């Protein structure tokens, strides 16, 4: 289930729970509406969890070119004259944010 059907279930459940004032002896429409809203919320939550799980698995932390350079170079060779600074620019000493 994606987000669209989940929102639809929440809307239909809210209409049944809060807008319909008709009574039916076999079914409590307010309880049915709340159950449908909970099912929609669970569907949205499950969709969110599954989507984020897939995104986390595909995340690369290291640039593939840098990773290849380190994997294929012999251990005794120097790769760079000085270490590569991977600190974000805003966290480096002396960085000043420009005012707009």
From TrEMBL:
Sequence ranges assigned to domain DUF6458 in this UniProt record: 1-59
Q: Where is the composition biased (Basic residues)?
A: 89-100
- Bilayer-crossing residues are 29-48
Which stretches of sequence are listed as region Disordered?
A: 67-100
* Keywords, in A-Z order: Membrane, Transmembrane, Transmembrane helix
Give the matching InterPro entries: DUF6458
Say yes or no: keyword Protein biosynthesis present.
no
Q: Bias category Basic and acidic residues: which stretches?
A: 67-81
Q: Does the keyword Repressor apply?
A: no
Output the Pfam families linked to this UniProt entry.
DUF6458 (PF20059)
Q: What protein am I looking at?
A: DUF6458 domain-containing protein
Organism per entry: Kribbella jejuensis
